[in-house]
Amino acid sequence: MMKSTSPENPASDTSLQAFGTIAESRLELAIEGSGTGVWDRNIVTGRIHYSRGWKALLGYAPNDLTDGIEESYTRIHPDDLAYVQAEMQAHFDQHTDSYAVEHRIRCRDDSYKWVCSRGRVSQRDEHGNALRMTGTTTDVSDIHALAERLQQSVDLITNLTNTVPGMFYQYLIAPDGSAGYRYVSTGIQDIFELAPEQAIGDDQLIDARLHPDDLELWQTSLQTCTATLQPWHLDYRVLLPVQGLRWRNVNARPTRLPDGSTQWHGFITDITERKRLDIELREFATTDYLTRLPNRRHFLTCLREELARIHRGQPSTAVLMCDLDHFKNINDTHGHAAGDLVLAHFAGMLQEQLRVNDTAGRIGGEEFAIVLSGATLASATLFAERVRQRMASQPPMVTGQPLVVTVSIGIAVMLASDIHVEAVLSRSDRALYRAKEAGRDRIETAVD
């Protein structure tokens, strides 16, 4: 039979009190064993009871601390004091269900550590005024140190991505096809002339910057790499409001996420200067620097392409060899600068006469060659006569005076029986030789 716990049974009350004291002691031991201290504040008197564990947390012996609230405030870091007091007052005024703050507190050796203090008003008067508050304080210095190191890593990566020329980004394509940028570095301001928040809010703004002729290539390439999960490498053009036409290169790697989404981490950089240099190098390899015409090597390549068309049954093509008469005398008399001017003048005149499918090249020295695609011997002769007459009637100006220069031209028609381009070149060259032997400033056609 259970004993009564009524006031008439004092023995029972004593047992319960003893049990409660034991329970509270065990609870305090359990809490403090986890690195947490307990405090109990009398809000009316301002006195605070600190547990042994709370004092040990700051390096104090059991009898080292006083229990006044004002003295406790002196241990809180000055930069955190106002925040701590405001949060506590808000809880006193019942604006919050509980009190929870992280702040720095001074230890016995005058160092500071980060703690998390949590508590709740446990007793109020009939008017709701706070009378008593109980709580715990936990050392979170290790967590703050870890968070600080993580923040330092984030800051380092952010600084790197924002400092390195170009744009780092994260892009996500959902299973339903919706897509968008999740992160872009500040380099987007140069790459696409957009702010990061603009791209994250609306990825179509970037698509609108793509060159219309490259948009389909961009989309197809992205779709292929999304399906195959292969790295994405692409050179493409953009049209920007301020910078105008620019070249960009994207390098990115896709990852398939558990929900079926595809996540991209990539880098976009400006390759405009590289593309310009590529063009210059190609021109250097294929173009004569003085006349801006194809050089001998590139001209022969064009000639081989024309012969291949002849072999496929295309209309006949004429090849002209041109030589500026007495060019050595020009160099000897007027100097090489004057000779260069004459060469450039003749090349410019040829370019004005050529059709879209025609090609002229500087073969060497004062010798030029022309391919008139689809031309017959008769039409090629008419073309050559126009060139000869114009050169005679519109001489180049040297030191302010016209310098009369004539040209000799040999013509041959490319034959389907020609195995190599050297055959037609040889025939036109022999015709040119006859023109020079016959007195120069004239046109001769191949007879064999």
Description of the molecule:
By secondary structure, the protein is an alpha+beta fold. The chain has 3 domains: 26-139, 2-Layer Sandwich (Beta-Lactamase); 164-276, 2-Layer Sandwich (Beta-Lactamase), CATH 3.30.450.20; 288-445, Reverse transcriptase/Diguanylate cyclase domain (Alpha-Beta Plaits), CATH 3.30.70.270. 44% of the residues lie in helices and 27% in strands. It contains 15 helices and 17 strands. The strands form 4 sheets. A 5-stranded antiparallel beta sheet has the order 2-1-5-4-3, sandwiched between helices. Strands 7-6-10-9-8 form a 5-stranded antiparallel beta sheet, sandwiched between helices. The chain has a 5-stranded mixed beta sheet with strand order 12-13-11-16-17, with helices on both faces. Strand 1 (36-42) and strand 2 form a beta hairpin. Helix 12 (327-334) packs across helix 13 (336-353) and helix 13 (336-353) packs across helix 14. The longest helix is centred in the N-terminal third of the chain and has 24 residues, at 10-33. The protein starts with 9 loop residues before the first helix and ends with a strand. The model is unreliable at 1-20 (pLDDT under 50).
